[in-house]
Amino acid sequence: QVQLQESGPGLVKPSQTLSLTCTVSGGSITTNSYYWNWIRQPPGKGLEWIGAIAYTGSTYYSPSLRSRTSISRDTSKNQLTLQLSSVTPDDTAVYFCARGQTVNSYNYRGQGTQVTVSS
Q1: Is residue 41 within 8 Å of 94, Cβ to Cβ?
Q2: Region 79-97 average pLDDT
Q3: How far is residue 32's CA from residue 96's CA, in Å, rounded to a whole number?
Q4: DSSP bridge partners of 49
Q5: 13-16: long-range contacts at Cβ-Cβ below 8 A with a sequence spacing of 24 or more?
Q6: Closest to 87 (Cα-Cα) out of 23, 35, 9
Q7: How far is the C-alpha of 1 from the C-alpha of 110, rounded, in Å?
Q8: Could you give the CA distance from residue 115 to residue 14 in angstroms, rounded to a whole number?
Q9: CA dist 119 to 8, 65, 83, Å?
Q10: Is the pLDDT higher at 31 or at 93?
Q11: Rounded to an integer, what distance in angstroms lies between the CA atom of residue 84 and that of residue 107?
């Protein structure tokens, strides 16, 4: 069974770039037809889709975050990376990586990692 584990700094200063890694085990990130999503949940709010990278390597981004977001992968390590630039306190959230069969859908999700943006 696939497992996803997010990792990264828990505290980021405003205007800096947030960088998170998702390590996948139990399955390859290049397996046909899977999409690997990044989503987040700000405190007291619902889930927000950030973007995704497909098994082909194609990337997809939320229009509201596109200008600040970059998603990439390292197939040799079976890892995904999320970078979010120019962060503000509004970017404080629990960040998850998740696997699905389309963009912005998922049936497996990591436990999430808390990221706080504060000086």
Answers
A1: yes
A2: 98
A3: 22
A4: 39
A5: 13/117, 13/118, 13/119, 14/87, 14/88, 14/89, 14/117, 14/118, 14/119, 15/86, 15/87, 15/88, 16/87
A6: 9
A7: 12
A8: 12
A9: 17, 22, 19
A10: 93
A11: 24
Tokens 């596109």 -> residue: 66
DSSP output for 47-104: -EEEEEEETTS-EEE-TTTGGGEEEEEETTTTEEEEEE-S--GGG-EEEEEEEESSTT
Is the C-alpha dihedral spanning 2, 66, 11, 95 positive or negative?
A: negative
Nearest to 4 by CA among 91, 82, 70: 82
- Count of positions (residues) in the chain: 119
Q: Give the pair of three-digit tokens for residue 96.
A: 């998850």
Give 117's pLDDT tier (boundaries 50, 70, 90): very high
Taken in order 25, 46, 43, 60, the sign of the CA dihedral is: positive
93-100 and 113-117: which strand pairing?
antiparallel
